[in-house]
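Most newcomers find our protein records easier to grasp once they have seen one. Read left to right, the backbone structure tokens trace the chain's path through space. Nothing more is needed to start thinking about how sequence determines fold. An example says more than a description, so a record of this kind follows:
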Amino acid sequence: MKRSGLINRDLSAIVAAMGHYDRLVVSDAGFPIPLDRDYVDLSQRPDQPTVLEIVQLLIEELQVEEVYVAEEAVEAMPTRLEDLAAAVPGSRVMAVPHSVFKEMAASARAIVRTGDFTPYANVMLVSGVVY
């Protein structure tokens, strides 16, 4: 039995399979998941867990080089970029239009659905390398 860190079997397997520049989307409860994408549904109830909580868990095991959010998220949550920069130190945090974010998500390795009810809370993590 795994003692610490990411203990969700499906999510742990996705992180272990990721390579440089692979994308992992952590989505809010309403994000449209493409039918052909792997996904892990962690939603429990409204706002449990939140996108930011799962991002903080993932960065314990995933080397992240870039982080993307929707521009609309920055409008709805003015501190979103700063919050993510603090949560994922050393990564570039960028905002793109929500329509572009959804296009990028279509080629993500997987999507992690949370219970977050915050509009545009979605975050895309782009894996880096540890060397």
User: Anything to note?
Assistant: The two ends are 29 Å apart (CA to CA). The first strand starts at residue 23 and ends at 27.
